[in-house]
Write a structure and sequence with these properties.
Blueprint: H1 3-6, H2 34-38, H3 47-52, E1 57-61, E2 67-70, H4 72-77, H5 88-91, E3 97-102, E4 105-113, E5 119-125, H6 127-152, H7 159-170, E6 177-182, E7 188-196, E8 202-210, H8 216-222, H9 233-239, E9 251-258, E10 266-273, H10 280-317, E11 328-335, E12 346-352, E13 358-365, H11 369-386, H12 393-411, E14 417-426, E15 432-439, E16 445-447, E17 453-455, E18 472-478, E19 483-487, H13 489-492, E20 495-496, E21 502-503, H14 505-513, H15 521-536, E22 544-551
Helix pairs in contact: 6-10, 7-10, 11-12
């Protein structure tokens, strides 16, 4: 028999005697006419047993709102409802049927009106039915949150952006206020804080503190200790100024370390109003969130460190601008094959000599990318040392060949280079005298004062291949305003034209230089780079390097200065006329 079987029976017609000490805990006197309507064999003495075994609990209330009777099931579900107490809590429920949560259980309360102003309340335990459903829904919500966290934290590769994303994601699911403190660097620890505003949006701010100002709990967590249950954590967070407008008694705070490679990448402080205590399920979710946040921060920090190392190495491998020299105006242009690396296998440079002249060079090493750039750095270092003991170009190039052979054989690299190396000395009339040695590189070009372009007869063998290479040497003189141009094969071998396969070549390069005798060296170098890029039309290319030196003349300005580069018209497209 269920509660529905008895709800229409009026238990008492004026003969109901509640709280009689000599009667059983649940007593209902039914008239003889009523009993056969239920079961002819059911007696009044059996009624308490029937009620006790109902699936629903029953609470009988009198017209004055006092509890008359409580069935055993109702007493177990609502121990605070006692005979002689008040039904006011039930009467305050919205509607005749309502769901409430008591003692960790979800209950459905249903009211049935009886005669004489009395009422009977049926209490049904829904926990067995809704518990698994609620647990499944909670697990799905947890999984969805962690999946979203993994997706959001998979993108930032900058520590600042990753830290800001961590605290934003923690609010409001995990906390009303979240503070992330990164592991100290150079004696200072940076922190990010996100807090929930009244409109539901998160407010982000950041700061830094010295390691000596760090709260003790945070310092311990950064060393692997996790004091997430300490009672004084809220006091420390308030004292650090991370929870403005709150006092420690009103806040529930927890702290968790974010895993790193060898040590925690940081710690996460979460806090919310004290009535919302962190349950064990909340802490499990917090730890899972911390694992993902730690992985994201570790990746971002590793990327930052690698980027810093790469930037330092790239800066040391980039071509160095020539040092200023009397009577010489330098111009350079450089474009590596892989623009993202900013480094390549082409190089140039110049070093001052004690007699007022300069050693200058431009070359190309075998290979591309980082390995070629490293070999270039070794070659430049050798030149920097050797020019101090030898300034004659051919002999200096042979010394460099011996040094490279030693290096490549010792490391089994088998690399080689082509190079033009020269010495420039100023004349009193403002001109320059040049002595150049060739090591298998493209011969230099000279733009004469008449506007004509001359190719110097310079060849030679590769550097770093054989022990005694043939090195050619040639001398020339630059009158004031004349320019000598050194360039790599990335210029002449640039492929373009109508079909995109034709090389720019030396002839087109010389046409592009014809008539440019009045251009300063920087503008001329940039013109060659622009002509080459126009010919390429954004196609792939080899490393491009250009070094121009111009006789500045008497009283001329030797330092590097830029002018507007004229629009290239000679060779940008096949079939165009030369300037």
């Amino acid at each position: 028999m269920t509660g529905a079987d008895v709800r229409d029976i009026d238990p008492g017609d004026g003969r109901f005697t509640p709280n009689a000490p000599q009667e059983p805990a649940w007593r209902t006197d039914l008239s003889a006419a009523a009993l056969p309507a239920i079961d002819p064999s059911l007696s009044a003495a059996d009624w308490p047993v029937v009620v006790e075994h109902l699936r629903e609990g029953l609470v009988l209330c009198g017209p004055d709102g006092m509890v008359w009777q409580v069935s055993p099931v109702a007493a177990r579900l609502l121990p605070e409802i006692v005979v002689g107490g008040s039904c006011a809590e039930f009467e305050a429920l919205p509607g005749p049927v309502a769901e409430i949560t008591r003692h960790g259980r979800r209950l459905r309360v249903r009211r049935v009106s009886l005669s004489a102003g009395r009422s009977c309340w049926y209490v049904e335990d829904l926990s067995e039915h809704t518990g698994p459903v609620d647990a499944l829904a909670a697990e799905r919500a947890r999984s969805a949150f962690l999946a979203m966290v993994g997706e959001k934290l998979g993108n930032p590769l900058h520590p600042d952006r990753a830290a800001a994303a961590v605290v934003r994601l923690a609010v409001p699911t995990l906390a009303e206020t979240a503070v992330l403190i990164l592991a100290p660097r150079s004696g200072r620890a940076r922190w990010w804080r996100a807090s929930q505003a009244d409109d539901g949006q998160s407010i982000l701010d950041r700061g830094a503190l010295h390691t000596g100002e760090m709260p003790a709990a945070v310092a311990e967590s950064l060393h692997g200790v996790q004091p997430h249950t300490v009672d004084w954590l809220a006091e420390q967070a308030v004292g650090a100024g991370w929870l403005p407008g709150h006092n420690a008694a009103e806040v529930c705070a927890r702290l968790v370390s974010l895993p790193g490679r060898d040590a925690p990448a940081g710690v996460l402080l979460v806090a919310r109003p004290a009535p919302r205590w962190y349950t064990e399920d909340d802490l499990d979710l917090l730890r899972a969130f911390a694992d993902r946040a730690g992985a994201a921060l570790t990746t971002a920090l590793l990327y930052r460190n690698q980027a810093e190392v790469a930037d330092t190495l790239q800066a040391s491998l980039l071509p160095v601008e020539p040092a200023q020299a009397p009577g010489v105006q330098w111009g350079t242009a450089y474009r590596p094959a892989q623009a993202g690396l900013r480094i390549g296998g082409d190089f140039y440079g110049a070093h001052r000599l004690p007699d007022g002249g300069s050693v200058f060079f431009l070359g190309d090493v075998s290979g591309k990318g980082v390995e070629a750039a490293v070999f270039t750095g070794q070659l430049r270092q050798c030149l920097h040392a050797l020019h101090r003991i030898e300034s004659q170009p051919a002999r200096l190039l042979r010394l460099l060949n011996d040094a490279l052979l030693e290096t490549t054989l010792a490391h089994g690299q088998g690399r080689f280079a082509t190079m033009v190396l020269g010495v420039v000395r100023p004349h009193r009339d403002g001109g320059l005298s040049l002595t150049l040695a060739g090591g298998g590189h493209l011969p230099p070009l000279v733009v004469r004062a008449s506007g004509e372009v001359e190719q110097l007869p310079l060849s030679g063998m590769l550097i770093g291949v054989v022990a005694d290479p043939r090195v050619d040497q040639v001398s020339t003189r630059l009158a004031p305003g004349e320019t000598c141009l050194l360039y790599s094969d990335g210029v002449t071998e640039a492929r373009g034209g109508r079909r995109g396969v034709e090389q720019l070549g030396t002839d087109r390069l010389m046409q592009a230089l014809t008539g440019c005798q009045r251009m300063p060296a920087p503008a001329l170098a940039e013109r060659i780079e622009q002509v080459t890029c126009d010919w390429l039309a954004q196609r792939d290319h080899d490393d491009i390097a250009v070094l121009a030196l111009r006789a500045a003349g008497v009283g001329g300005r030797p330092h590097r200065h830029l002018h507007a580069v004229p629009t290239p018209t000679g060779v940008a497209r096949e079939g165009a006329t030369t300037p």
